[in-house]
Amino acid sequence: MHNQLNLDATERRRATFAMNLSFVVGFALLGLKVTAYWLTQSSAIFSDAAESVIHVVAVGFAVYSLRLSYRPPDRRFPFGYEKISFFSAGVEGGLICLAALAIIVVAAERLLTKAPVENLTTGMILVLIASLLTGFLGWYLVRLGKRQRSLVLEANGRHVATDSLTSFGVVAGLLLVKFTGWQPLDPLVAFAVALQILYSGFLMLRSSFGGLMDWVDPETDHEVRQALDTIATDMGIQYHALRIRNTGRGANIEVHLLLPYEMPLGDAHHVATSVELRLAASLPYPVQLSTHMEALEDHADIHPMEQTHLPPAG
Questions:
Q1: Torsional sign, CA 21, 67, 200, 115
Q2: How many CB atoms neighbour CB 173 within 10 A?
Q3: Which of 41, 103, 114, 303 has its CA 20 to 30 A from that of 86?
Q4: CATH fold of 2-212, please?
Q5: Element (H, E) at 283
Q6: Is the pLDDT of residue 194 over 90?
Q7: What is the pLDDT of residue 1?
Q8: What confidence tens digit (pLDDT) does each residue in 67-126 have?
Q9: Cα–Cα distances in angstroms (integers) from residue 220 to residues 14, 31, 79, 208, 216, in the given order
Q10: Are the CB atoms for 87 and 248 separated by under 8 Å?
């Protein structure tokens, strides 16, 4: 049984607006940071601008991914297109890691050549404005992504939030350069920023690989098992072979129901349908649910290596 509870038109428009906003703001912030770098020739500001370049490219792919993820299942993709969100997170994470490596190269070069930093006050003001804007945008995207269980939105929001923290770090480093006059602090701050960006990219890559490899999120697993335990107890049945696949916004769930051998097929189908409807209604996200019916009495003989999951007593 498929119970695809797609977002309504309002939520879709809100998600699309959020991604388009991220794209437009990304271009504007990139302009601010490039201007700041041109004025100061700061390695730290270069690191911030490089991440913004990656952000604009990644958001462009994320906009496409979000639009594609809303397509309903078809003959070519019977489970839908939602898993494109994991590809989007992977692309963004990979680009972030490449940006971090580029920052390290530039910072090392400037550390060796001891190139001076100029116009620090103007550059810091521009970067500070950019950091405040990205901080608000990141908070908005993560909040909306969690509410809609959209990995595309949440991953982009976390990247934007990371960008905001990076910018604050750059401003703090440049303040130290301004007040101490020690120029090597600038490339050293860039090194620190690069390591932080690299870690952020690693987390996004891990999330992408986990989704593509059908790693089960512990929170989702707990929610589904808790709901199934309640339903099984109420209906006096047992289940096993529960499998959960995260789609990026919802879940594909498979479960085997153990029913009395003598139960008529029609009644067994009615029980399975009731379980499917109740489980789908009890979960706060879209699901595609499939049930398989087996006889309780001879299950252990046919599947001796599998363990039946009994609902908790009481």
A1: negative
A2: 24
A3: 103
A4: Alpha-lytic protease prodomain-like (1.20.1510)
A5: none
A6: no
A7: 41
A8: 887 788 888 888 778 888 888 888 878 888 887 887 788 778 777 777 667 777 888 888
A9: 25, 41, 18, 17, 7
A10: no
pLDDT digits (tens, 9 = 90+) for 113-151: 776 677 778 888 888 888 888 888 888 888 887 777 776
Question: Which one-letter DSSP state was computed for residue 297?
Answer: T
Rounded Cα gap, residues 113 and 208, in angstroms: 39
Show the tokens assigned to 176.
């130290």
Domain ranges in the chain with CATH number 3.30.70.1350? 218-302
CA dihedral defined by 62, 67, 70, 73, rounded to 10 degrees?
A: -100
> Which tokens go with 308?
């039946």
- Decide if 142 contacts 161 (C-beta within 8 A): yes
Count of Cβ atoms closer than 10 Å to residue 300 Cβ: 12
CA dist., res. 11 & res. 18, Å (int): 10
CB-CB contact of 196 with 74 (8 Å): no
- Token reading at 273: 């349908």
Residue for token pair 């009615």:
270
* Percent of the chain predicted with pLDDT > 90: 9
Three-state SS at 80: coil
User: Residues spanned by CATH 1.20.1510.10 within the chain?
Assistant: 2-212
Mean per-residue pLDDT of the chain: 80
**What's the count of helices (H) and strands (E) in the chain, helices before strands?**
9, 4
**34 has pLDDT over 60:** yes
Tell me the C-alpha distance between 216 and 81, whole Å.
19
The fold for domain 218-302 equals Alpha-Beta Plaits (3.30.70)
